[in-house]
Amino acid sequence: MKLVYPPCMARVMHSINRISLGVVMESVKDYMTRNPAFCSPDTELRKVAQMMVDCDCGEIPVLDPDNKVVGVITDRDIACRVVARGRNPSKLIARECMSDHIVTIGENASFEECVDLMEDNKVRRLPVVDQEGRCCGIISQADIIRNKDFSAGEVIRRLSRPSDTPSAVAS
């Protein structure tokens, strides 16, 4: 006889079954993009935008010389902080456009921790850091959706809740 659990218990039972069978729980590092494109705070903004095109990505981590994350630049940052304000992107550098409210996740964190952190901070991508705090990857909403334990609808619903305040990017 096969037991059928209500949706709210299905994930809990799946996790318990995996643990009891000795299955290692997957972590962020199992699905992240390793060695992502990155820039320094002094990289020309035009070059950052070109990296996004070349790498087909929407976020570039901004790293210091020790590979520690000091900020990120998203395609939305460029649109809202530069283009919408009539600023000339060819005359700007990363530091002038980047988001410096840094939210990262450790490479050994679970998917649930990752989704919770994204939801709490209303972001769709997170730089991943190793135990020394150096950037070793990036994980996106799409990477999480590819994990069989999460449905696309669930992830999108959790990460797409409207904010009660205006966009921080526009400020």
Short account of what is shown:
This protein is an alpha+beta fold and 171 residues long. The protein is built from 6 helices and 6 strands; from the N terminus they run αβαββαβαββαα.
Layout of secondary structure:
Layout lengths: L6 H14 L12 E2 L10 H11 L3 E5 L5 E6 H9 L21 E2 L4 H11 L3 E5 L5 E6 H5 L6 H8 L12
Helix and strand element order: HEHEEHEHEEHH
Order of adjacent strands in the largest pleated sheet: 1-6-5-4
- Give average pLDDT, whole number: 80
- Structural shape: globular
Low-confidence stretches: 1-23
Helix content: 25-40%
Radius of gyration: 18 Å
Distance between the termini: 58 Å
SS content category: alpha+beta
What composes the largest sheet? 4 strands, mixed
Strand content: 15-25%
3D structure, described in words:
There is one protein chain. This protein is α+β, with helices and mostly antiparallel strands and 171 residues long. Helix content is 34%, strand content 15%. It contains 6 helices and 6 strands. Mean pLDDT is 80; it is low at 1-23.
Spell out the key features of this protein.
two-stranded antiparallel ribbon, 171 residues, disordered N terminus, four-stranded mixed beta sheet, globular
